[in-house]
Design a protein that fits this description.
The complex is a heterotrimer. By secondary structure, chain B is α+β, with helices and mostly antiparallel strands. Chain B has seven helices and five strands; from the N terminus they run αβααββββαααα. The chains are: A alpha+beta, B alpha+beta, C alpha+beta. Strand 7 of chain A pairs antiparallel with strand 6 of chain C. Chain C: This is Signal peptidase complex catalytic subunit SEC11.
Chain lengths: 218, 220, 172
């Protein structure tokens, strides 16, 4: 009996080793796939309103609603080892007090773009799923999904600050980011410099702007 | 050795033969020494105790409080494991018996088997007590010649194999030494028919390996 | 078994083989901990809140040093909440300030709202020391075994027993 076990052990051990080494090779191919992402971000509408963090709260906070337009080409990020690309837009602004060199950063919009190989994992309704699957029928890689074009997009998240004040904030910038989730290997984000075959995002930052004063919510 | 061995299980055959060597040599007044395995045990158990201590303080005090000690423990453990590996590979080299012959010479025996080949291979090193010179050579014998069909160890041909080929063993147990011709016939009954076709591949092979091994000095 | 007792060194060597397998695995784990500066450098995903990026049973490799920059927005971090046993893997979506005291807010990609509800009572943000690492590497599915083991504890006992038995009964 322990011969059977021995054999099973060595076959299984060999299998895992081979699978792991193969995975590492696949992960390594990421570094040889060129990445040249680009993007243009423009603010299209700004609003600051007062509100409460949730229905039962008595606290009043200020919320910034930043509408924006985005044109981006992230098609290079879709390779055979890409499971999904998480695209997100952040608003970034320095601390209000001068002399304090601290930044604030908050995501205002994000989107999960799956490669067709991972479509079935997405948490969406059956109708949408059918449509999504149909959009890339027969393909396992869909670089065209990396081409984004948003006009006057409403933010997914209204942002505030721990001080509860955000109106009249100056020198705010929008920034485009991405996070590539592989099937196997290292998670990668947009870099600030070119690294090997991976270029930094061309553009991807909006012109600085200031948030307006509060507008009372009706 | 009343133990029954599964004949197609090479490691089991080797283990049984290894055990038989120690039993035999000790019975003919060899003084077995355990210094090699003792070093291995000391290295192994001290690294295990270190790991256990590390686990204990990690469990009792948490990661943050013991970070530095854990780092040191990991470093020491790495060194100890490295030393253990070097010891078993470079020094022990599969040594299964280490002892002093009644004549005062030191004897080292290492054993190995090759995959898919049921042959018991021994590396012998004898250190002369007066000159300190080491004589090293290799001998081998198919397991089939000292295990019977039902898987029981047969001591006589095995002991003769050792006594005939290893001088210090022969000296201590001369009645087990076989004459070369007798040995040849005993080992290969088929040869009876083709006797003088001999010089036989077997013999040729044996001397060949002996020469090669003789040149290589064994670290002891 | 009986013959083992007559040869204490051989018995000790066999027990040692098994002990060294365990302790080496443990020390490799601790070595990873030391290198990544994380108490738990490899974690298994337990919930679907980061789907489709991470499923239950996926293996994540963590890094807990800030060599080049602060832990920042967009990173996927594993954090502990006071009085809760299970660490959570979510993405940082807001960060106010810099350094050790920066206030961080997290959210699961697959969750509709942020994690404020998951934090301890009265806690609105995380700080750096709540985080035990950022996800840097990913291997799918292989951690599922640990989920099985924790959901069916008897499997653990059986496996350990069988492993121990074979390591002791069998040489080499």
């Amino acid at each position: 009996m322990h011969n059977t076990l021995n054999r099973f052990q060595s076959v299984f051990g060999f299998f895992t080793t081979v699978a792991f080494v193969l995975g590492c090779f696949i992960a390594a191919t990421d570094f040889y796939a060129e990445r040249a992402p680009s993007g243009t971000l423009k603010v299209s509408n700004l609003q600051v309103v007062k509100g409460r963090p949730h229905y039962y709260s008595s606290v009043q906070e200020e919320y910034a609603i930043i509408k924006f337009s985005l044109d981006a080409d992230l098609s290079h990020l879709f390779t055979w080892n890409t499971k999904q690309v998480f695209v997100y837009v952040t608003a970034e602004w320095p601390a209000p007090k001068s002399g304090v060199n601290a930044t604030n950063e908050a995501v205002i919009w994000d989107s999960i773009i799956t490669n067709p190989s991972a479509d079935h994992l997405k948490n969406i309704g059956p109708a949408t799923m059918k449509k999504l699957k149909k959009s890339a029928q027969g393909k396992t890689i869909a670089p065209d999904r990396g081409i984004l074009s948003l006009r006057n997009q409403r933010p997914k998240y209204q942002i505030t600050h721990p001080s509860r004040k955000i109106a009249d904030t100056e020198n705010v910038k929008l920034k485009l980011h991405y996070n590539v989730q592989p099937w196997f290997g290292l998670l990668t984000w947009n870099q600030n410099q070119d690294i090997g075959f991976w270029k930094a995002i061309k553009g991807g930052v909006s012109a600085p702007f200031s948030l307006p004063s509060i507008k009372k919510k009706n | 050795m009343a133990e029954k061995i599964t004949l197609y299980n090479l490691p089991d055959l080797k283990n049984a033969a290894d055990d038989a060597i120690a039993n035999y040599l000790n019975s003919i007044k060899f003084k077995q020494s355990h210094s090699m395995i003792d070093v291995r045990l000391a290295l192994g158990y001290s690294s295990f105790i270190l790991a256990a201590a590390c686990a204990l303080w990690d469990y009792k005090l948490g990661w943050d409080a013991t970070k530095l000690y854990t780092a040191i423990a990991v470093a020491i453990y790495t060194v100890l494991s490295g030393a253990l590996t070097v010891w078993t590979w470079k020094v022990e080299q599969g040594t299964i018996y280490q002892g002093k012959a009644p004549s005062g010479d030191d004897l080292f025996i290492a054993s190995e088997t090759k995959k898919m080949e049921p042959v018991y291979r021994l590396k012998i090193a004898i250190q002369d007590k007066s000159t300190g010179k080491i004589k090293a050579f290799k001998i081998s014998k198919p397991f089939a010649e000292f295990f019977n069909e039902s898987g029981f160890f047969v001591p006589k041909p095995f002991q003769e194999f050792l006594a005939t080929n290893i001088s210090v063993v022969g000296k201590a147990d001369s009645k087990r030494i076989q004459a070369a011709s007798e040995k040849l016939l005993n080992e290969n009954p088929e040869l009876l028919s083709a006797v003088l076709n001999a010089g036989s591949e077997k013999e040729a092979e044996a001397t060949g390996t002996e020469k090669k091994a003789g040149g290589k000095r064994r670290k002891a | 078994m009986l013959s083992m007792l007559q040869k204490p060194r051989q018995a000790a060597a066999q027990v040692l083989n098994f002990a060294l397998i365990l302790s080496s695995a443990f020390m490799m784990w601790k070595g990873l901990s030391v290198i990544s500066d994380s108490p738990s450098p490899i974690v298994v995903v337990l919930s679907g809140s980061m789907e489709p990026a991470f499923q239950r049973g996926d293996l994540l490799f963590l890094w807990n040093r800030n060599l080049l920059q602060d832990t920042s927005v967009g990173e996927v971090v594993v954090y502990n909440v006071k009085d809760k046993d299970i660490p959570i893997v979510h993405r940082v979506v807001r960060k106010y300030g810099e350094g050790e005291d920066a206030k961080l807010l997290t959210k699961g990609d697959n969750n509709p709202s942020d994690d404020t509800e998951l934090y301890a009572r009265g806690q609105d943000y995380l700080v750096r020391k709540d985080i035990i690492g950022s996800v840097v590497g990913y291997i799918p599915f292989v951690g599922y075994v640990t989920i099985l083991l924790s959901e069916h504890p008897w499997l653990k006992t059986v496996m350990l027993g069988v492993m121990g038995l074979f390591a002791i009964l069998q040489r080499e």
